[in-house]
Write a sequence for this structure.
C-alpha cells in the first residue's frame, strides 16, 4: 500500500510539472455557430429574455483533472496536438490507468458550496453552470447509471457525496439562474470508447453501422443520465451540452426536451453548443468575443486563468480585465460566463475570490450600466463601450481601462451625443462635457480611483 502511495505521489507530482504547458497553450476551442434559430416555445423565449438580463455568470470545471491540476479530461484523448500533453515516460495505456485511478484520490473534505455561492454573489454574478460530467465521464453527481462518480470514491461516505446537487441548491438559495453542464461524449463509457478497440481520437472508436448495438447502448446511457439530472436534481434554467462532435440528435435531445419542458423544466434553455438550429437556444463563442454586435442571444465563455479547471499557480486575469470583457460583451449583446476551477479540496482559491471581490465592488457602484441593459446602435469607440436601458433612451458609456494604464483626464467619443446632465454612476457625481460636431469630450473629476468608469446620460434626439 505504502509503495502504491509513493508511486502515486510521484505520478501526481510528475503530472503537475508535465502539464504546465496546458496553461500556455490554448486548448480545443468550440467556435460560435454562424446562424441562429429563434425557439418557438414562448416559455423558452421568456427565460432567454430573463437570462439576457443577468449578463455575468460562472462556469465551474471540477473533476478528476482537478486532483493533479491538469487540463480538463483531454490528456486521456490520444490526439497528437500541442495542448494535450502527457508524462512522456508512461505509455498511453499506463497513463489512462493512472488517470482513471484519480477517482481514489478526489476527496474534497473542505467542499462548502454555500461559500462558493457567497463568493460568486459577492462578485456580482447572477448565474452559475456546473460540470456534472466532463468528457472523461467522471460524474460529479450520484448517477444511478454508473459507479464512476464522486459518490463512490473516498468522498462516498460524506453526506455531501452527491456533489452537484449541493452546488445547485446552494446557488438556488441565492437566486442564481442555474445551468447544468453535461458532456455528450463520454470516454469512460464502454459504449463510446469500447475496450475492444484503441482510442485514437475524441470520437466513438468504432463504426456505428458495424456496431449498432454499442451505439444504441451509448445513446440510452446518455439519454438516461440527462433525464436523471433534469428530473431528480431540481429546477434548471439552462442545459449546457458540451462536446459538439456528438450532436443532440445523436442522444435524442428532442425527446428529452419535449419531456422535461412539459414536466419538470418548463422553458428550459437548451444549449446544444455549436450544433445550430432548434436546440442551440444561445450561441457560445469560446475564449473569444464576436467581432460585432449580435442580435440573437449569446454568451462568451472565458477562463479567469488560462485553464478551465484548477491548476497550480494559475495566471489570473486582473479585475479591470474582467470588467473590460464584461463591458465589451454587454455592449455587443452577450453575457460573460467566467471559468473558475475549484481546488481538489473543494475550495475557491483566495487569489480568485480577491479578484472577484474587486469586480463585485465595481458592479455595486456601476451595475446599472451592465445588468438589464440592451444593445444600442452606436456601441463602441476605442476603449468606450455603450449600453442602454431597455427604453433605449438612457445610455451608459463604460470606459474600459486597459491593464497597466492610468485613467485619462478626459474621455472622448464620436456619436451618442448627450443632452442635459451627465453623471458618473459611482458617487452619482455630475461631470462636465462638451458635444460638438458629433464629438463628445468628458472631463473626469480629479482624484478618481484608477478603475473603469461608467457614465449615464440621455441621448439627444
Ligand atoms: C471546450 C473544451 C472543454 C471545456 C469547454 C468549456 O469545449 O473542449 O474541455 O469544458 O471548452 O467551454
Amino acid at each position: 500500500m505504502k509503495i502504491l502511495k509513493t508511486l502515486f505521489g510521484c505520478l501526481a507530482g510528475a503530472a503537475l510539472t508535465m502539464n504546465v504547458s496546458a496553461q500556455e497553450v490554448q486548448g480545443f476551442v468550440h467556435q460560435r455557430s454562424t446562424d441562429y434559430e429563434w425557439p418557438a416555445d414562448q416559455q423558452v423565449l421568456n427565460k432567454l429574455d430573463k437570462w439576457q438580463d443577468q449578463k455575468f455568470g460562472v462556469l465551474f470545471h471540477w473533476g478528476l483533472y482537478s486532483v493533479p491540476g491538469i487540463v480538463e479530461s483531454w490528456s486521456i484523448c490520444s490526439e497528437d496536438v500541442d495542448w494535450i500533453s502527457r508524462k512522456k515516460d508512461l505509455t498511453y495505456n499506463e497513463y489512462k490507468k493512472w488517470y482513471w485511478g484519480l477517482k481514489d484520490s478526489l476527496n474534497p473534505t473542505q467542499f462548502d458550496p454555500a461559500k462558493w455561492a457567497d463568493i460568486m454573489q459577492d462578485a456580482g454574478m447572477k448565474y452559475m453552470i456546473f460540470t456534472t460530467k466532463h468528457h472523461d465521464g467522471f460524474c460529479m453527481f450520484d448517477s444511478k447509471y454508473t459507479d464512476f462518480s464522486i459518490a463512490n470514491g473516498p468522498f462516498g461516505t460524506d453526506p455531501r457525496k452527491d456533489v452537484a446537487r449541493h452546488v445547485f441548491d446552494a446557488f438556488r438559495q441565492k437566486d442564481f439562474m442555474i445551468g447544468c453542464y453535461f458532456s455528450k461524449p463520454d470516454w469512460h463509457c464502454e459504449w463510446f470508447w469500447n475496450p475492444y478497440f484503441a482510442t485514437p481520437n475524441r470520437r466513438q472508436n468504432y463504426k456505428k453501422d458495424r456496431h449498432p448495438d454499442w451505439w444504441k447502448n451509448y445513446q440510452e446511457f446518455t439519454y438516461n443520465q440527462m433525464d436523471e439530472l433534469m428530473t431528480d436534481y431540481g429546477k434548471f434554467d439552462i442545459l449546457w451540452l458540451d462536446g459538439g462532435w456528438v450532436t443532440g440528435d445523436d442522444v435524442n435531445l428532442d425527446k428529452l426536451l419535449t419531456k422535461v419542458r412539459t414536466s419538470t423544466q418548463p422553458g428550459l434553455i437548451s444549449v446544444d453548443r455549436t450544433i445550430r438550429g432548434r436546440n442551440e437556444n444561445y450561441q457560445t463563442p469560446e475564449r473569444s468575443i464576436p467581432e460585432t454586435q449580435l442580435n440573437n442571444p449569446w454568451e462568451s465563455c472565458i477562463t479567469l486563468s488560462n485553464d478551465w479547471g484548477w491548476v497550480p499557480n494559475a495566471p489570473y486575469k486582473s479585475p479591470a480585465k474582467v470588467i473590460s470583457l464584461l463591458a465589451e460583451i454587454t455592449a455587443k449583446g452577450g453575457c460573460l460566463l467566467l471559468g473558475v476551477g475549484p481546488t481538489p479540496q473543494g475550495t475557491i482559491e483566495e487569489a480568485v475570490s480577491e479578484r472577484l471581490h474587486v469586480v463585485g465592488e465595481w458592479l455595486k457602484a456601476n451595475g446599472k450600466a451592465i445588468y438589464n441593459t440592451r444593445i444600442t446602435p452606436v456601441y463602441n469607440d476605442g476603449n468606450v463601450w455603450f449600453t442602454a436601458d431597455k427604453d433605449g433612451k438612457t445610455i451608459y458609456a463604460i470606459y474600459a481601462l486597459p491593464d497597466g494604464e492610468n485613467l485619462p483626464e478626459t474621455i472622448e467619443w464620436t456619436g451618442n451625443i448627450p443632452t442635459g446632465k451627465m453623471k458618473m454612476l459611482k458617487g452619482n457625481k455630475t461631470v462636465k462635457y462638451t458635444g460638438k460636431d458629433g464629438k463628445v469630450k468628458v472631463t473626469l473629476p480629479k482624484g478618481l480611483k484608477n478603475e473603469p468608469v461608467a457614465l449615464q446620460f440621455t441621448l439627444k434626439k
Remarks:
- Residues 415 and 438 are 5 Å apart (CA to CA).
- Confidence is low (pLDDT under 50) at residues 1-25.
